[in-house]
Protein: peptidylprolyl isomerase
Amino acid sequence: MKISTQTTCFLILGFSSAVYSSDQSWKDEDGLEVTITKEISDEDCTIKSAGGDVVDQYYKLRDEKGAEIGSNFGKKPYTFTLGRNQVIPGMDRAMRGMCIGEIRDVVIPPKLGFAKDASGQPLYYTVQLVNLFRANPGERWVTEEGIQIEQTHKIEGAQCKKAEQGDKIYQQYILRLEDNTLVDSSYSRNSPFVFRLRNREVIDGMDIAMDGMCEGERRRVVIPSEYGYGAQGSPPEIPGGARLFFEIVLEKLVKRDEL
Structure:
């Protein structure tokens, strides 16, 4: 997995004490080795990756002899959130403190990779931090219809291009049920879902949840069944009476008078 960022020693992050360390290379006591092969200057590094950031990563995995096993360089970056157990522990640690564009060579010992103990082979990665997203949490509220809305990333007032009736919405979403079952996601199709706001093109709850949303804003939304698919549901994926748990992003907004 690969992503670029600029580095700071993991001693600063407090993960473990080091066997050796320098500005460009270090090895922790549990065997994780990191070497910076492309450094980003302080003036060009405006942000460093940290827990909670959503990172886009390029990676190349090799065996101990240097033969390539797999790579996504030049393809779609691999995206995950640091500190959420979405990747192996060694990769989560190796990607922290990076600047966008930075490249690192990483050796991950078996117990920080896919093995349950120290047996097995180390993993040899080259990783680059392509980009990162850091949320600006906003407010929470419940509409009069009972729809729960949380701004997981708020756009401040002067920068807000606000969605209104008739606007064309480009939306990314993830839909889950109350038990966390994944129902659908626009990300799996590599294309946003497009509709006109409050034009009866989506469920009522989604029209309500996105009304007044800013371009670039992210929300976590819970929609009661009466504003979703009702008592009948949408078999077989959505049972009758189900509440809908959405994570939504207003990726792009075209105002009605611009259409």
The first helix runs from residue 10 to 13.
